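Students often ask what a holo structure prediction actually looks like on paper. The answer is less mysterious than it sounds. You provide the chain, you provide the ligand, and the output is a string of discrete structure tokens encoding the 3D arrangement of the protein together with aspartic acid.
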Amino acid sequence: MKIRRAFYVITTLALITFTVVFSLRGEKKSERPKYMLVIHGGAGAIDANMPEEMKNRYYSSLRKALEIGEKILKSGGKSLDAVEAVVNFLEDDSLFNAGRGAVLNSEGYAQLDASIMDGKTLNAGAVAAVEHIKNPISAARVIMEKTNHVMITGAGAEKVAELNGLTLVDRAYFITSERTKSWNKANSKGTVGCVALDMEGNLAAATSTGGMTNKLVGRIGDSPIIGAGNYANNKTLAISATGKGEKFIKHNVAFRISALMEYKDMTLEEACNEVMFRHLEPNDGGVVAIDKNGNFALVFNTESMFRGVTGEGLTPEVKIWKTK
Ligand code: ASP
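The corresponding structure tokens follow.
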């Protein structure tokens, strides 16, 4: 009798366990895409009458950036590797205000800011006001992984970068003729950023910029400040911002959006809308973000934002203005 009862209990328990585990796995699968990647290349009043050829250069560069990131994520790579590789590509592309082609300060040279964050560990690294590092986002990663610090500025950051094998360049490397022409033109915003979710469920964010045109020497914007222009936390989201850095710093934009999700139970979209449209003002900028379930948001209060998204089950899409 006892044996028979034990048999029934064990079989029932096994069945319940099987059902629970099976349904959880099924649920998870439909809940979260395997991977997701979103990018931006800056926000502002981007001239809708720009020559077709120029538009196509932007579209194809954004598409290429998505391809680079997707390749890494699709083969099981880490979100941190994906965001770094994508931002490296955009830094090297002189179309954007990061790395080569970055805007120039009031004395006519580029000073670059960048940061990267790992949503799994909350580790972060940043460089600010660097003048000789070819790829500032990689220097940010070196600071995150090889030092006990989060942010290092100027010559100190350049020294760490050099010691870790990164390429240093002359100031002239960053100056392209297009940028020189636009020197003193006020509203150039073209920071680059990338956020990603990988197959392990880890989020990462990276942001890199030359800052604002004509800025004072030594000015640091929101991009290298964790919680202002960049943030990642597996509990909530990964987010990268672009726009008027001073506003993004004052409003703690990246962390505030995360906090609204964590403490007020807002969805990603609600939290982004709340901050971008209620705390900030029109023409301040935009954000791109992915939450822990793979939902994504591309929200801007400017006329336009260079942006793109791809992920499991999505056709890669790039846009500049509201609808195209
Ligand atoms: N947020 C950047 C800064 O203020 C500029 C930009 O996004 O274009 O440094």
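DSSP finds nine helices and twelve strands in the chain.
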